[in-house]
User: Fold these one by one.
Assistant:
Number 1:
Amino acid sequence: MKAETNRVITSFAVTPQMQKQLKEYRKEHGVSISWLINNLLHNYFERLGGKNNG
């Protein structure tokens, strides 16, 4: 399934505490949870070995 922005829709599980933290961060900083997670993963994979990993 693809979103209108040509992105793949996926899901994963987090702990209730992590979900609470993500919602609080979204409320305080006005960023979407999807954007935040995507950027965190992108940065993580870049640190692992560059462009081919993310």
Number 2:
Amino acid sequence: MSFVRPVDMDTTLNYMYKTLKPGTERKLENFNGKRKISVFRGDHYLNKITRKLSDPPFTLIRYMRNTGTAADPKLGTATIAFKAPDGDILVYFDQPGDSMKGVLLNVFRKNFLPYKKKFANLMELRQDDYFKLLLSRLTGKDFTTHGINNVK
């Protein structure tokens, strides 16, 4: 009896970077009507774009740079962008593909001053109370009491 091992998303994205022509977009998912997932291949990067089809709509863009070669791409997340109707959250990785080397948070909200803060890693950012408060205000969900990883 043979078993089929599922392919992880990083392997799929590396393959898509290798096979897609720059300037093309490919849809990955729109099965449940709740979100659309697609990828866009640029010259030296790949964007994984997740659009939540809710009211209000949200968009999460994972910008990945190729740190490998053209023949053997190794995509590393360089920036995560969360776009909401009343503001944007941008998280820049100091070293693409390694969230443990430091991240920079930028938050832009309508009618508020921008917020910028440096964190040692992505886990520290997710535990920051002010970040959770900003995220709660942008999404309308309460991240302050349960944390980011516990909200569905």
Number 3:
Amino acid sequence: MLKAAGCICILLASSGMAYSCVLGLRMELRQAEQLMDLLAAVEGEISYSRRPLPELLLQLAANTPQPFQDILKQGSSRMEENKEADIPVLWKSVCEQFRPKIALPGQAYQILLRTGEVFAYSSLESSLQLLRLGQKKLDLFIESCRVQLAGKQKLYCCLCYMAGLLSIIILL
């Protein structure tokens, strides 16, 4: 009876681990899509509104989901405090502060870091070109993630269940 209860607990644990891994994959994809929306919003705000940068970031934060909302708010407040600061360096420090809350993979995170360079250019056209380049790279990354998602889900589920079954065999 005790071994049967142990087997059930092992199967539940392996199912939970598989679910957690798949949930992590989906969160990475969802946050990459949210970053794509943020880049499009930044492009629109830069193109059509002539607001000072801290106000622009606060306006973007009002319509942006977490954790990017916190990054924009923190970036705005730090830019207000340090008017003479180097904007890309300040943006990178804000992004690094919120890195534990962000589930973006390396390539998408680098695109987020490069977004700070957009705010430093004095030319509107060069800023827009940099944003469009980031959007193209992010779009390719999202498409490759979507293609790989189904295979990775199956792989993680198989590995977790096989580890659970191996543990059950060792238990018995």
Number 4:
Amino acid sequence: MDTKLDDIFKSDRYKTRNALNSEDLCTDLEVSSLLAKTSVPYSHRRVANNFVLLRKICSFQVVQPRITKTEENLLSKYFFATLENTTISKMNREIVQMKDWATSTDDKLRNDSFSILEIRVKELKFILSNNYTLNSNEMYKGYKALDAYLTSITKYYS
């Protein structure tokens, strides 16, 4: 009787783990590059150019600050998690949403989209400057999708 219960709980645990790992496939990074190829708003191009330029010059050796509580509140307003807790596929969906919002006729939504992108870049700088989190498996790999998106923008739109 006990072995049947253990088998039931094991299978649920493994299903959950496999579902989480399927969200973070590295093949989804190609989707991020393709998102950068199709109709990128000017605000995204400007942020990407600044990010890539600073990355070439500084390479983020200095530890960057974390995001503030007000920035976290803006993310949670639109049901976005922090970049550390975001998978690659979820980040790709967020990028598509931000691209749509950046071309919206609603000024508040357009400004919030730009602010969210700047927050994401700030989070990305913090993650890239902190080697501990990159070397450990304590976070999802959504930051790689954002990094691929930003670097691909500068390749396609120079």
